[in-house]
Amino acid sequence: MQFSNLSNRLSRWQWAGLGSLFVIAFITLIQYPTATSRSDPISVSKNADKISGPVSKFHLLLPASGYHFRLCRALASAIALGYPVSVLNGWMKEGDLDASKTHLAKVRTVMQYLDSLPPSSDDDLVLMIDGYDVVFQIPPDVLIERYFDITKAASARLALRAGGNSTESLTGDEAPRQTILFGPEKVCYPVDWGRVGCWAVPQDIGIPRGAFGPDDGQLHHNLPRWLNSGTIMGPAKDMRLMFAATLDRIAQHYDPNHDFSDSDQMYMSDVWGVQEYARSMNELREYFHGEVDLNVAFPTYDVEKVLPNVTPDQKTEYHIGIDYRSGLFQTRAGSDHILEMLTYNETTEVNGTTTFATVSQNIPETPNFTPYKIYLPSNLASSIARILRLVEPAVGAIPNVTELRLETNVVTKNVYGLFHSTGGKDYIDKLWTQLWFFPYVRPLFEAMVPALQSGRAIAFADGRTWVPSHTLSTNSSVTEGVNATGAWADIDGGWLSWHELCGAFEAEVFDGYTPPMDD
């Protein structure tokens, strides 16, 4: 597109925005020169000390044991949107570290990674996603901002529940607050209603019963009240403690004859369940001052509850919470009917700049239902627009954000951050070619390479600058294009180039082809 044509399309406010971007880009180039060659196996960003103010790192972990086209789609969505270079936990490992043999390998290999981090990384953010059934939809700056919005609001509510007199979260390692977010689940899985991770969960999640459909006990109408272990985000220190507690629970309760003995979700949800049991009992004792009737405290299920054996000095608080409203994580099971590809191209009559989409589907089956609006968050619109401008020189005219289709949870009114396809994989295979960035995956790869090489800042949130924990290999002979990208294998496995990981699956990634199988 010629410069004169572009000028005609830009308002004075858009020119001001572009001017700001050029200034930021210039400062970023000064602060983050291209990294020099080094021999350490994982190329950790070391430019943070050149930024004024607090700096923290953002880690992206994908437990994955071997090659698959869906792993490549997960990597591609992360690269295209500007996430840190991924670490593949458990890559080609054997024995109890082989995720193809046991899901518990995920816990062990991620624990190894967390244990390898120095104390200076305790406040870093770690995002762990299952490697074979997750794709991203929104950029990392918006995801990080949402994480802090969600956890701070939840911690304030916990403080009030614990008897605090303000909306400030409580301090101290044992104080109830929320720093770790898991994806939501509409049923307790593995199903065993006597298990603490099933019955001790919070009753009030801030969404009324019946919002997902009639309150009739059908899976897709349930509230997403339970924990899913395929998507987790939190500070490195708290994640380390939570994973260690999960390994302890595995050691204490592992039964090779149990049908779900290798379910990482079962053990993690029970760690969370013990936390919620302890929180509830502490709260109830403030009112009853003696024995508490568990059927009153936890009235949901008419089953024999297996009580956790909690000793007075036992640590039970791990700051675990659930992303109930799917601001970050959208889990598929039971949610197909509340996901819509929306185009946010309607504007308010007041100023014509606030865009929204109208939802006409009557999910709760309400009498005299009235269609309602879902507004497009301004920070998401700005972030997507910045990414699209990166590929304009290569692809020509780019769409406005209001022309894009963004998959939205129409109950919680969130354009979710990433999609986790629990159960069958047909949905995520169809979703791949519908994601807003799919037409630009290859040029986005190429445009993101300089930033992924140098470790440029990816977000400003919580009063800190966030930089990627890992950058591209500086020892690679390829420095441009898609084959300059790739991932790191564990903490000691070295660099895996895009060509090695995904060269055989480029039709599935760039063309959207899916093999005629669901493996």
From TrEMBL:
Transmembrane segments: 12-32
Keyword set, alphabetical order: Membrane, Transmembrane, Transmembrane helix
Protein name, per record: Uncharacterized protein
Organism whose genome encodes this protein: Penicillium cataractarum
